[in-house]
Amino acid sequence: MNDILPEETPYWQWLESVVGTILTAYGYAEIRLPLLEKTELFRRSIGEATDIVEKEMYTFLDRNGDSLTLRPEGTAGCVRAGIQNGLLRGLQRLWYQGPMFRHERPQKGRYRQFQQIGVEIYGAEGPDIDAELILMSRRIWRELGLGDLSLELNSLGSPASRAGYRDTLVAYLQDHRDSLDEDSRRRLETNPLRILDSKNPDLQELIAEAPSILDYLDEESRFHFDRLKSILDSTETHYVVNPRMVRGLDYYGQTVFEWTTTRLGAQGTVCAGGRYNALVEQLGGKAVAAVGFAMGLERLVALVRESTTRPAHHLPHAYLVMVGERAAAIGPRIAENLRDRLPGLRLTANVGGGSFKSQMKRADRSHAPIALILGDDEVSNHQLGLKELRTQSPQVSLSEEETIDRLARVIEAD
Ligand code: HAM
């Protein structure tokens, strides 16, 4: 679990505002969900035989003896909220943001508390909305300067077609049981599709030669998948079909996808999702088509930090230096007046006194381009000194009105 320090938060704020703006522009509304849900919700949705439910949840009994879990992901809670609040009648485009918790083995790009921005759509069955999600995420990457992410796609078919595939896969793997590792042998009983996701190098050949789920799709899923691919083709969205991509959560059917990078080592998936048409009904609602994705913000921030200079939207436009008692007495009034007159002004006022020299040093360290200087002379003349800190221009004396004009230009150029 990480502290996100002030040095890093500008990247986070920038990323969050870029993503939030694009989601809003596509018509998505924000929903804010609790961090705690009943444990049962995750067991029933993510699936008993998944890594998350088997070994990664932070689960405890509350004072009433109810078993609660810190959410390991957002989809289950979003469905729960949708059912409970009657949101799932028409078409709903929702998004959420916040921390998720998984007791995983921490490593670069994998944490026990991590942040996601997730998107869920209810009431749309067609491949057009799957495509919209992918195109919208592509726009987000471009806006973040991450044009080099790769898209992998697969279809898991309908529950019936997947059951047929599962039998074929189990038969194939049974024939090669001796080559399987211990984990895969266990998975053969509980969740055989997950074996396709094994990272064990010794299994890769076996996995590569396994039957492909795409050869077992029912007609509707095949049509859905073909149509999605043709929309992606027509919008020049590059993708790779990966028939071995099965995802780590059990609620998916039909479309699944992942955006990945090679720049982060082993934890290269920055965004992942897919269709989960069966889940709403399974959790007690009326059957409603559903699809969504979630992006991992730590991983995206790591990429953004490599390629973008630190956003400057948090840095002050000006630092107010106040030297002497009279300046300290009227400085706060002047600072408040500037803030009143100049919405958007980021002004850091000196606190705690100090010599002219030490205050100028603080001004410099604040990264403000301008120091406003109030000393005895300025107080007497009803003026402010203005010194550009990043140029060699000499200090000038300005009236308060002239100062406001100068700062207005700085804000405008921001
Ligand atoms: P997920 O694949 O489990 O899907 O997680 C989505 C993304 O969250 C991952 O691609 C990764 O970027 C990030 N992530 C996951 N675990 C960690 C971790 N331990 N540390 C850092 N980042 C992590 C879901 O959570 C689904 N709810 C997505 C979804 C929404 N499907 C449909 N709607």
Tell me, rounded to a whole number, the average pLDDT. 96
User: Main sheet?
Assistant: 8 strands, mixed
Which structural category do the helix and sheet elements fall into?
Answer: alpha+beta
Helix fraction bin: 40-55%
Q: What is the end-to-end distance?
A: 34 Å
Strand order of the largest sheet: 1-5-6-11-10-9-7-8
Q: How many strands?
A: 16
What's the tally of helices? 15
Oligomer: single chain
Give the overall shape: elongated
Low-confidence stretches: none
Radius of gyration, in angstroms, nearest whole number = 28 Å
Proportion of strand residues: 15-25%
What do these coordinates show?
- The chain has helices at 9-25, 39-46, 51-56, 75-84, 127-143, 159-175, 182-190, 204-208, 219-234, 279-282, 297-307, 325-341, 356-365, 376-381, 400-413, and strands spanning 29-30, 36-38, 58-61, 67-70, 92-101, 113-122, 150-155, 240-241, 255-260, 269-275, 290-296, 318-322, 347-349, 370-374, 384-388, 396-398.
- It has 414 residues and is an alpha+beta fold.
- The mean pLDDT is 96.
- It starts with 8 loop residues before the first helix and ends with a helix.
- 40% of the residues lie in helices and 20% in strands.
- It is built from 15 helices and 16 strands.
- An eight-stranded mixed beta sheet has the order 1-5-6-11-10-9-7-8. Strands 13-12-14-15-16 form a five-stranded mixed beta sheet, with helices on both faces.
- The structure holds histidyl-adenosine monophosphate.
- Residues 73-75, 102, 104, 110-111, 114, 116, 118, 120, 248-249, 269-274, 292-296, 298-299 line the site of histidyl-adenosine monophosphate (HAM).
